[in-house]
Design brief:
This protein is α/β, with parallel strands linked by helices. The chain has two domains: about 280 residues, UDP-N-acetylmuramoyl-L-alanine:D-glutamate ligase, CATH 3.40.1190.10; about 140 residues, Mur ligase, C-terminal domain (Protein-Tyrosine Phosphatase, Chain A, Alpha-Beta Complex). It is built from 15 helices and 17 strands. The strands form three sheets. The protein has an eight-stranded mixed β-sheet, sandwiched between helices. Helix 3 packs across helix 9. The protein is globular, with a radius of gyration of 21 Å. Its EC number is 6.3.2.12, 6.3.2.17. It is an enzyme of class 6 (ligase). Its cofactor is Mg(2+). This is Dihydrofolate synthase/folylpolyglutamate synthase.
């Protein structure tokens, strides 16, 4: 059997651009495939800049705790493409098996007949084909980029549409202002479909999203207005007009995950799943996991390069709002258990590196910048180190993640260090692969 990676390599040659936002090419292919997007399980559609994956992880955990079969489509993957497509089953799903993925790829390739189409578009068609043929109670569908012209936006009438926090990212595709980016994300909000808008960090994003939601003519849940979430006495308290939930704190660290958990509950209620048992919400919110979102690497090949009592954390955050949320989480860690914070960072040249790194000034003791040889758009390590120094951080560079961790492990610290690897989801994938702990 031809491996899926070989077919993916052929898909890359079908369009000169990796990203070319449009719906027409995918609609043509879906028509040739018999319109599988019209035979999907009920959909909850999620867009936003930060928190999409975590919000979906919370929803999936709650739904699966209730015994429901949940399909999931997310991107990008960290180590293997198969992470993008989770096939649901009652009580717990699985990453798409290689045999099913190859079959779907082959059928999409044949139906496309060599016509121009991006990799994300044709692989989204393959995912829809798989989801339409495997029974499930619900499909949690994450946009790839933006919303209005994202390939996932061919779904006409989801159960609910959700927009997580919007911030500055992918400006070259979505616009040079928060308002323009929010307008693209708001493109998934549809007439007659309930909508959920997470608490927003930017007033101009909220204003755009509120106007778009009002035009749908359906009920809207707006974070901080129609639903509220916060910590009280070591518990997560969620409340809206439909009632209150007293839940355990999320397993996913950081107060930003409280926002994502609250948004997931509002989304489930908006989609008609609000009457699931309290036990499902308790176990789901308390137990949800999502790789490379402040993930503790307690074992593995890279973890072994540090002293046994050191902490090693991994996060894929890469934009300014992500940097602020991550720095706030590190400050919480420091308050609970003081340790020297040491960062290992690699970033793409398209990202606002200064905006990401500045929140760590006065918090991190040092930054070690490393290259990402697998990414042609990566900033050189020396450039990242220079940006870190200009942002008020002590910085140096190393040739690899292994070299950086070996150097940190050999240094003398006043107490065991807390090491944070961050700056890119691509880096996070490389780290999980090198550590021998890929997502499952």
């Amino acid at each position: 059997m031809e491996p899926s990676d070989a077919i993916l390599a052929r898909f890359l040659a079908l369009h000169p651009k990796l990203i070319d936002l449009s719906l027409g090419r995918l609609q043509r292919l879906l028509l040739a495939l018999g319109e599988p997007q019209k035979r999907l399980p009920p959909v909850i559609h999620v867009a936003g800049t930060n928190g999409k994956g975590s919000t979906i992880a919370f929803m999936r955990a709650v739904l699966e705790e209730a015994g429901l079969a949940v399909h999931v489509y997310t991107s990008p993957h960290l180590v293997r493409f198969h992470e993008r497509i989770r096939i649901g089953a009652p009580g717990g799903g699985r990453l798409v098996p290689e045999s099913l993925l190859v079959d779907a790829f082959r059928r999409c390739e044949a139906a496309n007949e060599g016509a121009p189409i991006t990799v994300f578009e044709i692989t989204t068609a393959a995912a829809f084909l798989l989801f339409s043929e495997q029974p499930a109670h619900v499909l949690l569908l994450e946009t790839g980029l933006g919303g209005r012209l994202d390939a996932t936006n061919v779904v006409d009438r989801p159960l609910a549409a959700v927009v997580t926090p919007v911030s500055q990212d992918h400006s070259e595709y979505l616009g040079d202002s928060i308002a323009k980016i929010a307008a693209e994300k708001a493109g998934i909000l549809k007439r007659g479909v309930p909508s959920v808008i997470a608490p927003q960090d930017h007033d101009d994003a909220l204003a755009v999203l509120e106007r778009a939601a009002a035009r749908t003519g359906a009920r809207t849940w707006i974070g901080g207005q129609d639903f509220h979430v916060g910590e009280e006495n070591g518990r997560l308290i969620y409340q809206d007009d439909d009632g209150l939930l007293d839940l355990p704190l999320p397993r996913l660290p950081g107060r930003h995950q409280h926002v994502n958990a609250g948004t997931s509950i509002a989304a489930l209620r908006a989609a008609g799943f609000g009457r699931l048992s309290p036990k499902a919400f308790e176990a789901g919110i308390g137990g949800a996991d999502w790789p490379a979102r402040l993930q503790r690497l307690a074992k593995g090949r890279l973890a072994a390069l540090l002293p046994p009592d050191a902490e090693l954390w991994l996060d894929g955050g890469h934009n300014p709002d992500g940097g602020r949320a991550l720095a706030a989480a590190m400050a919480e860690f420091e308050e609970r258990r003081p340790r020297p914070l040491v960062m290992v960072v690699a970033m793409l040249g398209t990202k606002d590196s200064a905006g990401f790194l500045e929140p760590f000034s006065g918090l991190a003791q040092s930054v070690t910048a490393i290259p990402m040889p697998s990414q042609t758009a990566a900033r050189p390590a020396g450039e990242v180190a220079a940006i870190a120094r200009a942002s008020g951080l002590q910085a140096e560079q190393a040739d690899s993640i292994e070299a950086a961790l070996t150097r940190i492990g050999a240094a003398v610290w006043p107490s065991p260090p807390r090491v944070l690897i961050c700056g890119s989801l691509y880096l996070a994938g490389e780290v999980l692969a090198a550590n021998g702990t890929p997502p499952t």
